[in-house]
Structures are given as C-alpha cells and as structure tokens.
Amino acid sequence: MIPNTCFMEGYFVRSKENLIFEIKGNVHPRGRVIAYLRYVPDENLEGQFRKVYDLQERELLLRRRYPKYLWWSDVYGRVLQSVDYGSIVEVLNPVQSLDIFRKTSQIPEIVETAVFLSQQLVKGSEIPWSSLGVTGSVLTGTTTEVSDVDLVVYGERECRKLHGFLRRNPESIFGMERYTGSELERLVRFRWPRLEEYHNILKPIEAEKVLQGRFEGRDFYIRLVKTCDEVGSEYGSKMFQYVGRDNVRCRIIDASQSIFTPCRYIVEDLSSDHKIVELVSYRGRFTEHANTGQLVDVYGRIERVVNTHSGLYHHQVVLGENPEDYLLPRL
User: Fold this and answer.
1) What pLDDT score does 171 carry?
2) pLDDT tens digits for 78-113?
3) CA-atom Rg of the chain in angstroms
4) Using an 8 Å Cβ cutoff, are 292 and 215 in contact?
5) pTM above 0.70, yes or no
6) Closest CA to 216 of 266, 122, 128, 148
7) pLDDT: which is higher, 10 or 2
C-alpha cells in the first residue's frame, strides 16, 4: 500500500510508537517521507495526545527519545524529520476521511463544523468533493474544545477556483468571517510572537487573507496544495546548499504561487550579492503574504539551489524555519 501512495501536504502518518507526523511537501526520497512530528501521546492523560507546535521543540523531543526520525539528507544538506516506510502503521488521507465523515451520522461537533464548512465551499466554488479534505486535528482525531477546523484542497485548478471564489465573495458563506479586532490581535500574537515590533505591519496583512478566519466560533484555515503530478520535480533533481541567514530587500515579480503550500514568490534581489530569485516556505503563515509589485524586506535561510541535470544554480530564501523569519512590505 505505502509504496504506491502519493504523499502530499495535508496527509499525516502514525508511527509504531504512536507518534503522529505531518507530511511536508509532495517531494520525498525513496522509502521514506519527509514529515514533521505534530502530536505525541500525552503522558498525563491516557489515550490523549499533546500537540507539539514549535519546530525546535519537535526536533529536541525526537533527538532525546526517537532519534531514528532525524535523518540526514544529502539533497538538502542537513538533518530532516522523516519517517521510513517500515515505521508507518497508518496513513491518514484527508479526502478519504472527509468522505467517511460525510457518510457518518454521529460525529463530534467540530467534525460537523468541518463537514458543514466543506459543504458551503463546494456549493459556492463548485469544486469537486474529490479535491477537498480535512487535515490537522480533525483528521488525526486529536481535537480539543479549542481546536481549529483545517481543510485542504488538492489540484491547481481547483485551488485557484476556490481562492477566486473566496476573494470575490468574502461574505457569501454565512458564519464565515475574516479576522478583525481582538481576534486579529490574538492571531498575530500567536503566529508572530518573536516579531512584536512588527505587529502593526502584520495585522493588515493577516486581515486580508481569505484562506483563514472564523467560522461558527472556531478558527479555520484552508491549505491549497498542488498534486504530485503538478509539482514538476522529484527528489534529487535539485540539491540545496546552505549559504547563511541574512536580510534581503527585494521586489515581488510574481506572487501567483503564493496561495499554495508550499508557497513561492519570484523576486528581484535589490540588496544582496546572492541575487535571490525566489522566496519559499512550507509554513502556511507565509501564504497570501505579499503581492506582485511590492517592495519587501525578508529575513530567512539563504540556500543555493543546484539543478543536478544541468549544473545551473540560483539562490532562494527559505522562510518559516526560525520564529524570527519575516516577509514584510517596505513602507
């Protein structure tokens, strides 16, 4: 079953140790998946799970107790969190799970909310049910009273169709609201705790994003993901070499891929010697974050990206691996 599975962003896997990992991206090495620890058994509550949010905490926990899931990647030139096929006991598929929930009569309240929101999105945008799924705690069965509703849409055409619908009709779904007031304040404090000095800049950015907000009293987030066939690369077709961490000023040339996870911005480098040509992030917080034509200041991990077939290379900035990373409009 596993070798024929197309592991995509939004999927989760459960390991033999009952650890739950979230799949990152759609490009994976042979025999394993790049996946980051998300939920661990709660030592104080039998049968319950604890969410591990901070990336550094995840790595530290694995290093201390489950080092087999820290794997050196020659392609990325660093240690990644990864699960080998032999350690996977369950693959959690977002689309299949939503289909099961839709056909189940008795489901928890938060799952009902996820199904109802899904129905409204399918009705309004006319995307097929086969492209829509649940992810996050609803998918993994680890919900709490304050859990978010996390959805995922697969396929570039369907993703753009849904995003266009939400952009054109922001108030067409009853009960759906963008972040404002105290809820916006809460979101910005939670999402950007190390960037307090920039919170007044980040608030209007977060307020304009259409893939997130409140629905029936809960936070929601919709992840847009290309399918495996649409990604256009395979593991090993590019090599990534660490250059350093730095600030870069640039102009956004093309933000058309910014709605996806992973997101990508094509840029013109205006300040560094590296001649950065793109910004990338696997973190949802950087989606819908800047627009074509904007001047922005960026701080993150600089990498040299080498095409293993042609030998040609360019530089990129990876955002979101450090809580101090930022992408801010130049005011």
Assistant:
1) 81
2) 999 999 999 999 999 999 999 999 999 899 999 999
3) 20
4) no
5) yes
6) 148
7) 10
How far is the C-alpha of 269 from the C-alpha of 258, rounded, in Å? 18
Phi first, then psi, for residue 305 (nearest 5°) are: -110, 115
Work out whether strand 313-319 and strand 276-281 pair parallel, antiparallel, or are unpaired: parallel
CA angle at residue 41 from 53 to 38, to 5 degrees? 25
Tokens of 72: 């050196």
| Residue 30 buriedness (CB in 10 A; 0-12 / 13-18 / 19+) | exposed
Residue 161 CB: number of other CB atoms within 10 A? 17
**pLDDT tens-digit map of 274-311:** 999 999 999 999 999 999 999 999 999 999 999 999 99
Q: Which domains does the chain have, with CATH numbers?
A: 2-91 (no CATH), 94-225 (3.30.460), 237-329 (2.40.50)
CA distances (Å), 23 to each of 135, 225, 319, 324, in order?
11, 12, 18, 23
30 near 7, Cβ under 8 Å?
no
Residues 12, 35: Cα–Cα separation, whole Å = 8
**In this structure, are residues 28 and 37 in contact, taking their beta carbons and an 8 Å threshold?**
no
Separation between Cα atoms, residue 30 and residue 306, nearest integer Å:
20
Q: Determine the pLDDT at residue 1.
A: 45
Over 90: is that where the pLDDT of 54 sits? no
- Whether omega for the bond prior to residue 170 falls within 30 degrees of 0, making it cis, is no
